[in-house]
């Protein structure tokens, strides 16, 4: 697609980043299953290696199939560039890497995907980085947690596991004031439901494993840059503002302007960390993204119906879906995610731990898996799986107490899903 009129989301999810293949005219994006690319001549090779010309060198850095996906996700998010990675967790490290140094920290929401809590509370310590976890509904606490060593604020737009909505405008005004970027994990919302950059996010990260691919086939991730952050405004981000020894002292912020973060992600991040997405994975995700809006509409419609049904059912204590009028987060929907609150929520089942285990074991359509954002409906009992290493207090704080299950509502017939929950709840609470 050429630069021209601004197209709508449904058009962009099919066409952004894709052009007929220059060699064959192939309409669908070919899977460029190649490791390397032949240089035109020695001068061309030198220009590519000096970053004076943009092109393909080696597939750890760039690949045309992956490039099409990067451009598509960046376009849907309203960013200037994107870097795809091997998983959502890789994307989170790739987002932090240019910002951080030993001794620096991030301020992160206490409501995050369980794997992210582990990555931030344990693994990043090995790099000398740390995370301070705060309740992001408490804006004064977020502000107070930022210190001179803080290099980013991190949250999810629609947060795990309860589907809580973050007031991104309020959080971005706090990070702006502190002169640091806001990174938003938009996995659960997708750009169809929420566009974090419009609410002040600097970077958006995705696990493309989930809704963007939408069929549970491949892991992947992406970092999208808004292009709006001035990395040279202060001395906090030397990787982007200071001379880079590996490229003859070039300064990324000066040379690439709004694309500095994206170029750094490829030329340093992928080059040296190697968390590269492979072209097969990019192909599956490109296929999935073509129907993103249609799927998200059905995900939201089904989640709304099922959450209402569960809330009215005497065998449950409460349902956390923000799309319910009873949710304290429902008032944020028109501002943050006007097309709906996603399809992820938790349910407290009467009968506690034992009833939850019976529920997951008796469901026929729902699968008991550690995943979300699939076309099929999924359920997990966090306390006996993903959150089993936590103390009872930590489980409660994470919204993953013993009597709670998390549902990821798929795009099957809602009536079939309700019937399945009905029969399994009957067995679980008998
Ligand atoms: C799954 C997930 C991740 C991690 O992504 P992977 O692709 O599994 O590495 C991060 N954040 C959220 C919200 C997720 O759902």
How would you portray this structure in words?
The chain has 17 helices and 14 strands. With 430 residues, it is α/β, with parallel strands linked by helices. Strands 1-9-8-7-4-2-3 form a 7-stranded mixed sheet, with helices on both faces. Helix 8 links the parallel strand 7 and strand 8 (203-207). The N and C termini lie far apart (58 Å). The model has no long low-confidence stretch (mean pLDDT 95). Bound molecules: pyridoxal-5'-phosphate (PLP). The site of pyridoxal-5'-phosphate has 17 residues, from helix 4 and helix 5.
SSE topology sketch:
Blueprint: H1 9-15, H2 42-49, H3 64-77, E1 81-85, H4 88-96, E2 105-109, H5 114-121, E3 130-134, H6 139-145, E4 150-156, E5 158-159, E6 164-165, H7 168-178, E7 182-185, H8 190-193, E8 203-207, E9 221-225, H9 238-241, H10 252-256, H11 260-273, H12 279-289, H13 292-312, E10 316-319, H14 333-336, E11 344-349, H15 352-362, E12 367-368, E13 378-380, H16 392-397, E14 404-408, H17 414-428
Parallel strand pairs: 2-3, 2-4, 4-7, 7-8, 12-13
Antiparallel strand pairs: 1-9, 5-6, 8-9, 10-11, 11-14, 13-14
The site of pyridoxal-5'-phosphate has 17 residues, from α4 and α5.
């Amino acid at each position: 697609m050429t630069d021209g009129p601004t197209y709508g989301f449904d058009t962009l999810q099919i066409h952004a980043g894709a052009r007929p293949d220059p060699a064959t005219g192939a309409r669908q994006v070919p899977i460029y299953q190649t490791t390397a690319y032949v240089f035109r001549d020695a001068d061309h090779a030198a220009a590519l290696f000096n970053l004076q010309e943009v092109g393909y060198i080696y597939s750890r850095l760039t690949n045309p199939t992956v490039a099409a996906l990067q451009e598509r996700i960046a376009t849907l998010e309203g960013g200037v560039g994107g870097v795809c990675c091997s998983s959502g967790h890789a994307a989170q490290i790739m987002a932090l890497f240019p910002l951080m140094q030993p001794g620096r920290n991030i301020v992160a929401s206490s409501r995050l995907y369980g794997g992210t809590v582990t990555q931030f509370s344990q693994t990043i310590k090995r790099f000398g980085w740390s995370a301070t976890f705060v309740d992001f509904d408490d804006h004064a606490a977020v502000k107070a947690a930022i210190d001179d060593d803080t290099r980013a604020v991190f949250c999810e737009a629609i947060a795990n596991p309860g589907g809580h909505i973050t007031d991104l405008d309020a959080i971005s005004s706090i990070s702006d004031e502190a002169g640091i970027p806001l990174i938003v994990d938009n996995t659960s919302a997708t750009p169809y439901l929420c566009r974090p950059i419009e609410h002040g996010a600097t970077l958006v990260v995705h696990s493309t494993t989930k809704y963007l691919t939408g069929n549970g086939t491949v892991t992947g991730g992406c970092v999208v840059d808004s292009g709006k952050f001035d990395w040279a405004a202060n001395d906090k981000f030397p990787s982007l503002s200071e001379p880079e020894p590996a490229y003859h002292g070039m300064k990324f912020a000066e040379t690439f302007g709004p694309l500095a973060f994206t170029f750094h992600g490829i030329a340093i991040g992928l080059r040296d960390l190697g968390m590269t997405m492979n072209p097969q994975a990019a192909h599956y995700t490109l296929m999935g993204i073509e129907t993103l809006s249609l799927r998200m509409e059905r995900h939201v419609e089904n989640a709304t119906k099922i959450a209402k049904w569960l809330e009215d059912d005497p065998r449950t204590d409460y349902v956390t879906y923000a799309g319910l009028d009873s949710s304290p987060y429902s008032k944020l929907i028109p501002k943050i995610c006007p097309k709906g609150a996603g399809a992820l929520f938790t349910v407290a089942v009467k009968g506690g731990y034992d009833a939850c285990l019976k529920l997951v074991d008796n469901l026929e359509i729902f699968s008991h898996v550690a995943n979300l954002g699939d076309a099929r409906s999924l359920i997990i009992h966090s306390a006996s799986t993903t959150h089993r290493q936590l103390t009872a207090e930590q489980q409660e704080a994470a919204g993953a107490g013993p009597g709670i299950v998390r549902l990821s509502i798929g795009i099957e017939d809602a009536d079939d899903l309700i019937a399945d929950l009905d029969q399994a709840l009957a067995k679980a609470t008998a």
